[in-house]
Design goal:
It is built from one helix and 23 strands. By secondary structure, it is mostly beta strands.
Length: 308
């Protein structure tokens, strides 16, 4: 897929999220890497996406129809989170390491700059985990959140600037953003390692979508996967021993479409070995954001199927 094509795909992504896929059943599941068992938490004949696991282990967070919901893990009951004016949230959201804050990506306008027109697109905000009024972090759009630093001071995200999608970081207080990738082609999905030393991300730098790792200052970039799959969204386990990621069975170029045949796979960082955990219909919305349980033995994801 050329640059124009993946730019169009990213511009349309929020529209697909808000419109909701029709005739789809979404199933929120938990996978246990010790027992290899899948557990169904919630299933609806509706479209929802992208679970996060709370720091205290009691609930999962998903987005649906531009809003965010908590799914209690004792009752499996779904309740709306108060995000104030932010009612056009996409699937790039997540909880800080201390469990106190929530980062969201909400369709909005860029911060006004004298002499320049404002733009509409995904913009990153933070708010208390219990809900409240969001505070803008990124002045520019589009910006798609993907990771909190372990100390809670910086956010990592994918952003389009001048036609190129790259990895950036910014202070939670806003200000100037720091660009970390400059290669031609899509760089996406940055997430901090639990020790704060690295950022894992997916990139087209090698000519196809693979998982990479770099230092948090953007140095020492290293490709970690190299196979026949299109590999996206590496999520490091809380103990730093593994990362789980999603793999499309067929090459998707720079695209990350929904309703494709995919597998969730686990890389052992001590030896680089990869284990396939499960396969199903999914893709966009399945595991876009961090979703490990605090115990590091389980993670959450969403599988899909057509109803008709």
């Amino acid at each position: 897929m050329n640059k124009k094509s993946y730019l169009l795909a990213f511009l349309l992504l929020p529209l697909m999220t808000f419109a909701q896929l029709e005739n789809v059943q979404s199933t929120l599941e938990i996978f246990n890497i010790v027992t290899n068992e899948r557990e169904i938490i919630l299933s609806e004949e509706a479209h929802f996406e992208a679970p996060n696991w709370s720091g205290d282990g009691t609930f999962l967070l998903i987005n649906q129809g531009g809003k965010l919901y908590k799914v209690d893990l004792k009752s499996n009951k779904k309740t709306l989170i108060n995000t104030g004016f932010a009612d056009r949230c996409n699937n790039d959201h997540g909880i800080s390491f201390d469990g106190k804050w929530l980062a969201i990506s909400h369709q909005a306008e860029s911060e006004p700059v004298p002499g320049e027109p404002t733009k509409k697109g995904s913009r990153i905000y933070i708010l208390p985990i219990e809900g409240g009024t969001p505070k803008a972090v990124t002045p520019k759009v589009p910006s798609y959140w993907h990771g909190w630093s372990p100390d809670g001071q910086r956010l990592a995200y994918c952003a389009e600037r001048n036609g190129e999608y790259d990895v950036y970081t910014i202070s939670v207080d806003g200000g100037e953003e720091t660009r970390l990738t400059t290669e031609t082609g899509l760089d996406d999905g940055p997430e901090y390692s639990p020790d704060g030393k690295y950022l894992y991300y997916n990139s087209m730098a090698s000519g196809k979508m693979e998982i990479w790792r770099m230092n948090v200052d953007g140095s020492n970039k290293k490709q970690l996967t190299n196979d026949a799959y299109s590999n996206w969204f590496a999520h490091p386990s809380p103990d730093g021993k593994y990362f789980v990621f999603i793999s499309y069975h067929e090459d998707q170029g720079s695209g990350h479409p929904a309703m494709k045949e995919v597998s969730l796979r686990l890389m052992n960082l001590s030896d680089g070995s990869i284990r396939t955990l499960c396969s199903f219909t999914g893709g966009q919305g399945t595991i876009n954001v961090p979703s490990w349980a605090p115990d590091g033995k389980r993670f959450a994801f969403v599988s899909y199927k057509y109803i008709k």
